[in-house]
Each structure stands twice: as structure tokens, then as C-alpha cells.
């Protein structure tokens, strides 16, 4: 074990983990400019159907997360991450050669199931090897890459479309996954020693699921995380249509999308600096109030404008909304996990899977509501932020003393 650890330095570990983590963001955002062409070529019934290319991947991700963590406690981290990348590669190949829309969606679901492996295992791999400040430094470096990817991914997709067809986008994802797989297999040691492994038990997973459902705080904040993630995915579903169809930005879409994505990254950085001072509950509560009030005001304003506000006003409203998302993303899952410290590994898998599963139908409803205006999107933000406030009130704070500053 010691010789294995010496085989890969801190910098190489950061680079490899960042590539693995970036696969999820890249697989979602690089697709956005290509959605109309894919839908047109594969014969979708309605322009909004192409949005399912995004939602289907998230759907696969929601199911995959529940398995990797518990299985890795028995087999080790490395085999499960390898299995996830292989499944992702198979999904990319299926989408690459798809000739019908259902086959495309099947490939995207497989990609989501596969991506749940890196998403679940990277944190476990880092936690196994580092603690304290080295772990914080590693996670900070990885999150920097994770923030950058959504900014540049649509531009990469647009660039590929300019010189080749949409299938080349899937070929690009496939090649990146193969490179990451080879690098990981050759260089990354197993981080969970055999003596620390525990047998896989479906009963343990079901017990953790039941405990999340019985615990008001855990269930409530998991549901809130699902609502906010649902709104965000709904935004991803219809962003291309809003900016390229409604506002006719065409080739400028990646630039606008990237600028808006920066607001989430800035919020994540701000949250990391102030959360220790104010606490997760305080920040989450007041951010949700701001989101609810501002989105309701924007909805009313945009309704009076027949759903077509000037671009500068839409951009300003989305910067505020996405900044709020960045604060909330950094805290909601952590709050949901607070009462589950005694089942942290399996509990994290349940919370992640359940919140993602909740988000998918909400995102589909918001995205498919696109009618050439921004009203369905802001109606979704206002409604689900209000629902989230009600759920947070129901969840209470009795079991969340650990969240206080």
C-alpha cells in the first residue's frame, strides 16, 4: 500500500480527480448547442422533446448513485469507479451510433448510471487518502475545475458543431472517458484496504433509506435539494431555446451561458468563505427567502412584459437566481446529512439519489413548459422556492444543532 501511494503525487491526483469529476458537467453542458440538431435528425415529435437528452442523463444518475457507495465498501473504490466509466463509455457509444430518439435516450440514461461512479467514488477516494487541510486543498482545486467546465463546455460543443456533426460530441466524450479510464487503471492505487471493507447488504441500504424517510430534517432538506436541483436542470433544459430561439443569440449562446455559469462559481466561493461565520442553516434560510421574493417579483414583471423582457433584464435576473443556487447547492446536502453521521456513506448515497430522483420530473415539467417566453422557467423558480420554504419550516431545526455557527 505504501509503495502504491508513492506512485502518484498530489498534483497528479488533483489532475486525475478533476478530469473524472468534470465528466458529469461536460456530458451535460457540451450538449446544449446541439440539442436542436439532434432532435431534428432523430425525428422528435416536438422541439421541447430534445430537452430529454439532458433530463435522461440526470435520471440515470439518480439511480446509479444508490449503488456505487455501498458496493465500494465491499469491493474497494477502484473496481466500482472503473465499472462506472465503462458503463459511461457504453452509453456514449450507444448515443454516438443511435438512429432513433429512444435509442439516444437509452444511451444517455446509461451515461448517467455510469457517471454516478466517478461522482460517488472521487470523494471517497480523496477521503481515504487525505484528511484536514490537504483534503480541503485537494477539494478546492477539484471544485475550481468543476466550476470552469460549465463556463467553457457549451463553447466546446459549439466549436465541434462548427467543424463536424453532433455525433463528434459523443465521440469526444468517449475519447476523454477512455483516456481517464486508462490513466486511472494504471496510476491510481486502491485506497480502501481489505481489512476495512464490509460486506454489501441490501438490508443496510434499505435501512438507511427508511432512516432518511423517518428523520424529518434529513427528508425535508433532501426534498428541498431535489426542488432546487429540479429548477436548475429545468433551466439547463430550456436555456438553449430561450437564448437561441427566443432571443436569437445563435453563436453567442455559449458566451452568455458561460457568463451566467460564473455566478454559480462565484457563489460557491463566497459560500466557502462565509459559511463558517454564519452557519449553513442561516445562509440557506435567508438565501431561499431572497430567491422566493426576487423570482416572484421577476415573474410578475415579466408577465407584464408578455414573457419577453429585454435581454439585459433577463441576464440580471438569472445572475441573481443562479447566485442563490450556488449558495444553496453548497449547503442543502450537507444539512440533510447532519443527522445521518452514523450512516454517512450509505446515507450520502440515499440522499444524493433521492434528491436527484425528485429533481428529474420537476425539471421535465419546467423545460417542456417552454412556450417561447421565459414565464414557465420563472414560474418554476418562484413556485419551487416557495414550496422549499414550506418544507424547510416543516423540517424544523430540532435535529440540526450541528449546523449552527
Tally of distinct domains: 2
Q: Tell me the total number of β-strands.
A: 0
Q: Biggest β-sheet, characterized?
A: none
Overall body shape? globular
As residue ranges, the low-confidence spans are 1-5
Rounded mean pLDDT score? 86
Evaluate the radius of gyration: 21 Å
Query: Could you give the order of the helices and strands?
Result: HHHHHHHHHHHHHHHH
CATH architecture assignment name of the largest domain = Up-down Bundle
Structural class: mainly alpha
Compact overview of the structure:
The protein is mainly alpha-helical. Helices cover about 80% and strands about 0% of the residues.
Describe the SSE topology:
Blueprint: H1 2-6, H2 10-29, H3 35-42, H4 52-75, H5 77-96, H6 101-129, H7 132-163, H8 167-187, H9 202-214, H10 216-246, H11 253-278, H12 280-304, H13 311-329, H14 332-337, H15 344-368, H16 375-395
Features:
mainly alpha, 405 residues, Growth Hormone, Chain: A, 2 domains, disordered N terminus, 16 helices
